[in-house]
Amino acid sequence: MYNWNTCVRDDVTGPEFLLPSPPNLTKQLKVISAANKRRIMVQAKLWAMTKHFDGFPKNSDFELKVEELPEPKDGEVLLEAEFLSVDPYMRPFSRFRMKEGDVMIGTQVAKVIQSKNPAFPVGSHVVSNSGWRTHTLSDGTGLIPILSEWPKDVSLSLALGTIGMPGLTAVYGIEEVLGLQKGETLLVNAAAGAVGSVVGQIAKIKGCKVVGSAGSDAKVAYLKELGFDEAFNYKTVGSLEEALRKASPEGYDCFFENVGGSFSTAALEQMKNCGRIAVCGSISTYNDSEPQTGPYPYFTMIIKQLKMEGFMQSRWQHKHPETLKRLLAWVKEGKLQCREHVTKGFENMPAAFMGMLQGENIGKAVVAV
Predict the structure, then answer these.
(1) pLDDT digits (tens, 9 = 90+) for 203-215
(2) pLDDT, tens digit, 9 for 90 and up, residues 80-107
(3) Radius of gyration (Cα) for the chain, nearest Å?
(4) How far apart are CA 67 and CA 59, in angstroms?
(5) Which residues form the Enoyl reductase (ER) domain (predicted)?
(6) Phi and psi torsions of 121, nearest 5°
(7) What is the pLDDT of residue 39?
(8) Closest Cα partner for 11 from 36, 42, 30?
(9) Which residues are CB-neighbours of 156 under 8 A, at least 6 positions away?
(10) Phi, psi angles (nearest 5°) of residue 24
(11) Which residue from 84, 122, 156, 196 has the fewest beta carbons nearer than 10 Å?
């Protein structure tokens, strides 16, 4: 019989495998050998990018493929994806980190289903940069074991969100780039997303005033549930400048930037003198066919003596183990609330990705295999 989830042959018993008389022994051994090969082969599904995105991604930019994987060699493990992440960075990074035909980049939570590496026993879970694949052969390089103290009642999918890359990004942006201090006022846009929602909550933990911007009334309501002091729907306000001024008449000490474009221009005008800006993302520009031009805020930055710094969480990789434990502790203590937008089915990876880019998600967007 076969296990159709992995296409692994469960058994090779049956009359066709009984050894006959010696004259036919060689032929029969070949049959057994072929059967054993079928037994160890695993069918992996993967999504490839057929061509670089031109403007907003389209279904025709992706192709679902199947490949056969052998059993692991010494030092290797076979991973089976349980949750896959879709993130904004995949759109711009695909341009310079991928070539046409490559498997889409991305992170997943996977279970070790076969192992010849003692560091990763069968049944353990890891975070892996395997891309959009259901199964992966790995030599263990870059695999991050799920924290040993992970509670059984907390979904492992959070290792792709609040207790994963987005959470790490929020912590380092606040602490390492902005140096946010108690009593200061923080502005964060895309505030109902995977990173922004964690940013706002950590700022509240640190005793700050938090203003969030989001793209729907439902998202604004969610920000209020999380304890944001002020929140507004940037799509429905008459004037973005007036909305920012009303939310914090005294201005902003810190700005956690996820959007870019015209929002950034308006926000910089509302910064206090010597304000700090952490540039995490620029999602409003990712799907542009032609680069946006101007206005250029340099004079505003000079007059206000602003500090603006771009960053990626990988800069502080040496701090990841400790920071992940801090994030997990905040979740267990109820200080960090987590919300996910879950799409079911590996076949729906492109739809989940495009939906996330259109802002359909509240919280972290993940795909459950």
Answers:
(1) 999 999 999 999 9
(2) 999 999 999 999 999 999 999 999 999 9
(3) 24
(4) 21
(5) 55-367
(6) -70, 155
(7) 53
(8) 36
(9) 82, 83, 109, 125, 146, 150
(10) -100, 10
(11) 122
